[in-house]
Structure formats: structure tokens, C-alpha cells
Write a structure and sequence with these properties.
2 domains; 23 strands; 25% strand; binds uridine-diphosphate-2(N-acetylglucosaminyl) butyric acid
Length: 426
């Protein structure tokens, strides 16, 4: 078992480069299956969720060649199977993108119900609604989702009941080669939605309106190869922004799109951080106390749920009381028990959708366990802020989404190391 040992209390100072976005990469790699020619994808983060997707594509028969770090060539035209094996697809949530991608190519897909972070119920009814609209039938059998259509998928006007990132992307993938013009309404608008649409368009697809509430897709018969670079990771950047503020540090975070970071930057400013935006970088400096504020998560352009745990660490050290309301997931406060071990004063409401955070002067070091990806990142920030030695176990959750987090933090002054211990020891 791997764990991090962190000796906290040092301000982070220096420059941190940001990788390509996890949630764009895990959609764009399966989307290569829609292409009729090989593609080159650049700025791919080196994280375990991406490795799991690449393993699945290799298993299915794609030819994958690493050209340089973060840059790979994928020939998915050699794929003949429209089935993803259960033990592989259950490793991560994003395996559901194979449904849309395989449907676009074979009009048939067979994928196990996805795994990923346990954030409460994670239904896929809206994904299935869009596939039905496009003329498919589906059944869920022994934990497997099977979707099929006789002949080519047919365009439809689909109104989503819930704003869903996954369902929006899956519908785009399934519709990109469908016959006619598909209209998707009440769609998600996150930066990775726009990135997937840009990727499909770079292959000659015709996807318009991504980033707004309505997306129109004119189905294409043929998609050519492309050389595409993945958008920078909004959440990795936001995590380092929060780490800079929590440690009263000064970080220049590079290779970002500052526009994608506005909701995070404006909250940090309210909390007392000094933010400077550049063309493709953002600087976060925090000298004084942390001021309390309220946070409510919502679909983009609202405050991202994937940044809620990291911001809670800051609020746990603020001078006053803050309220955090989680608007997306039922179970995104699993870090609260861990922060309480560090002396944080956080009360959850009975429904578990809101937390009242009474700031304390400082957090104390503790032995911690990462319950999921973003909660794990939050605990890293908490340990970096607490004077003394903390340990964090179950770091595989963190490494699903953060490339070389130990190396990047060490390079800006953190005292953090990764070590292997016998299971049971922490
Ligand atoms: N929902 C439904 N039906 C559906 C789909 C979703 O009711 O068919 C509900 C969900 O239960 C949830 C809400 O809609 O309450 C939003 O879910 P969404 O589908 O947008 O989430 P997702 O696609 O499963 C992606 C990210 C998550 C991120 C959410 C919200 C990926 C692989 N995952 O999940 O990222 O929290 O969007 O922005 O893109 C993370 O990176 O740590 C992470 C969990």
C-alpha cells in the first residue's frame, strides 16, 4: 500500500505546470474510436484513469504508440470488438464513454456499469435516454449495459432532464455519425464538453453550440484523423490554487486557461488571496488570514463540485463561519471525518448536502485516509498546511487524477514523500 508522508507548515512557492484535463482525456481517448483514421492526441495526463482507458483500447485491438511524454498515436480502426470486459471497465467511471463511441462506430456496445469515486448514486438514465432517442434499444443485464441499433443511428431532438457531463458527452459521441441533425438541450457546459466537441470537429465532425445550453450535431459519414491537444485541467489548476492559499504561499500556475478558473479565483479573492491573471497562467498569493465565505456547487459556470473539498480545507482555517452546499453529489463530504481528526470544526446537515464550517486557527497533523479523488487532494492540502507530520493512505485514489503530485509539490517547497508500507500500517 502506498502512502504520502507530509511535513506541513511550509508556504508553497514557485511555478507549477498544469497537465491536460483528466475529464477531457478520458472522453477524447474513447472518442478516437469514432474516427475512420488514426489520430494523435497530445497533452495527455499521466494518471491511472488514463492508463486504464488506454489498456481497454489496447485490449479491444487499437494500436497505440507513445510518441513522447503526453503524446500518443492511436489507430482505433483495427478495433473489431464492441465489448469492454467487466473487470477493466469497472475500474473507472469514464468507461461509460465507450458506450457512445462504440455505438457511433458499430451501432452496438456492451459495457459493464461503471465504477469510479463513490459520491452517492450515479445513475446513467440520461445517457440511456439519449441512446433511445437516437433509435437504439438497451438492456441492463447482470451489471452490463447492452445498447444496439439496427442500422445507422438516427438523429433526434433530446431534452435532458438533468444537466449531466457524462450524458452530454455520450450523446455527442453517439450522434456525431448519426443520420440527420441531432439537437441536445439542457446540456452540460463544462470546459471538457467544449474540448470533446472541438476534438470531434477537428476530425471533420459538425458539432455546434458546445459551451451553451443547446448543442446541434449534423451527423458525418466519415471522420478523418487529427492531431489534437487536450485542454488544461481546470481542477488540477484549482487544486494548486487552493494549496497556495492554504499554505500562505505564492504559486505561478502555468499552462492554464484563466477563463476556466474564474469561479475558483473569485472565491479565493473573497477569502483574501491576491490573484493575477496572465494569458496562460495564474498567480495566487495569500499573505493574511483566510476570510470565511459561502460556497454552493453547481454545473458550469457555477462553482465546480470537484473543487468543493479542497476549498473546505481553506474554510476550516478561516476566521469565522462558512456554509458549503453541495448541489451535484449526495456524498461529497467524506473528507469531513478526516479533517475533524485534524481539529476542524465542521457540522453536516442531516441530509448530508450542506456543511457548516467554523474556522479554527490551525489544523493539527494526523494519520489520514483518502476516501476518494478530490477528498484525497483536499487532505493533501490540509496536511501541507498543518505544522508537523501527517500521513495519507489510499493514495491510489489521488493518483487516478493528479499527475506526479508528489514531484510537483516538492518542486515548490513541500516536504512530501511517497512510501510503500505493509497494509494495515498507516
Ligand atoms: N445524473 C443523473 N442521471 C444521469 C447522469 C447523471 O441523474 O444519467 C445526475 C448525477 O447523479 C449527478 C448529476 O446528474 O447528481 C451530475 O452528474 P454528471 O453526469 O454530470 O457527472 P459524471 O459525468 O458522472 C463528471 C465528472 C465528475 C464530476 C461531474 C460533475 C468525469 C469522468 N467525471 O461525472 O468528476 O464531479 O461530472 O461535474 O468527467 C472528479 O473528477 O473527481 C469527478 C468525480
Amino acid at each position: 500500500m502506498e502512502r504520502y508522508v507530509i511535513s506541513g507548515g511550509r508556504p508553497l512557492k514557485g511555478t507549477v505546470p498544469i497537465c491536460g484535463a483528466k475529464n477531457a482525456a478520458v472522453a477524447i481517448l474513447p472518442a478516437v474510436i469514432c474516427s475512420d483514421e488514426p489520430c494523435v492526441i497530445d497533452n495527455i495526463p499521466n494518471i491511472s484513469d488514463v492508463e486504464a482507458i488506454i489498456d481497454i483500447m489496447r485490449w479491444m485491438g487499437a494500436r497505440i504508440e507513445r510518441l513522447s511524454p503526453g503524446r500518443i498515436r492511436i489507430d482505433a480502426t483495427t478495433i473489431t470488438s464492441c465489448e469492454v470486459p467487466a473487470e477493466m471497465s469497472r475500474k473507472m467511471r469514464a468507461s461509460y464513454y465507450f458506450l457512445g463511441a462504440l455505438l457511433s462506430r458499430f451501432s452496438r456496445a456492451h459495457v459493464s456499469l461503471p465504477g469510479g469515486c463513490d459520491l452517492g448514486p450515479r445513475p446513467i438514465d440520461q445517457h440511456l435516454k439519449s441512446f433511445s432517442g437516437l433509435g437504439c434499444q438497451w438492456k441492463v443485464e447482470h451489471g452490463n449495459v447492452v445498447v444496439w441499433c439496427d442500422g445507422r443511428l438516427r438523429a433526434d431532438h433530446i431534452f435532458f432532464d438533468t444537466v449531466s457531463v457524462g450524458a452530454t458527452i455520450n450523446a455527442m459521441l453517439a450522434a456525431v455519425k448519426a443520420e440527420g441533425t441531432t439537437i441536445l438541450e439542457n446540456v452540460a457546459k463544462e470546459p471538457h464538453i467544449v474540448d470533446v466537441a472541438n476534438f470531434l470537429n477537428s476530425m471533420g465532425g459538425d458539432v455546434r453550440g458546445a459551451g451553451t445550453d443547446v448543442i446541434k450535431i449534423h451527423g458525418s459519414q466519415y471522420l478523418r484523423g487529427t492531431d489534437y491537444s487536450i485542454v488544461p485541467d481546470q481542477i488540477e489548476a484549482g487544486t494548486f490554487m487552493a494549496a497556495a492559499a492554504a499554505t500562505r504561499g505564492d504559486l505561478l500556475i502555468t499552462n492554464v486557461i484563466p477563463k476556466h478558473l474564474e469561479s475558483i479565483a473569485s472565491k479565493l479573492e473573497l477569502m483574501g488571496s491576491e490573484i493575477t491573471e496572465y494569458d496562460d497562467a495564474i498567480r495566487v498569493r495569500h499573505l493574511g488570514p483566510i476570510r470565511p465565505t459561502n460556497i454552493k456547487t453547481a454545473p458550469h459556470p457555477g462553482f465546480p463540485t470537484d473543487m468543493q473539498p479542497q476549498m473546505a480545507v481553506l474554510l476550516a482555517m478561516a476566521e469565522g463561519t462558512s456554509i458549503i452546499t453541495e448541489g451535484i453529489w449526495e456524498s461529497r463530504f467524506k473528507y469531513v471525518d478526516e479533517l475533524r481528526r485534524m481539529g476542524a470544526q465542521i457540522q453536516l446537515d442531516t441530509g448530508g448536502r450542506a456543511a457548516v464550517v467554523q474556522g479554527v486557527k490551525e489544523l493539527a497533523p494526523a494519520a489520514l485516509r483518502a476516501p476518494d479523488l478530490r477528498a484525497g487532494a483536499a487532505l493533501v492540502i490540509a496536511a501541507l498546511s498543518a505544522k508537523g507530520e501527517s500521513t495519507i493512505s489510499d493514495v491510489s485514489h489521488i493518483e487516478r487524477g493528479y499527475e506526479n503530485i508528489v514531484g510537483k509539490l516538492s518542486a515548490v517547497g513541500a516536504d512530501i514523500r511517497r512510501e510503500t508500507v505493509d497494509s494495515g500500517e498507516n
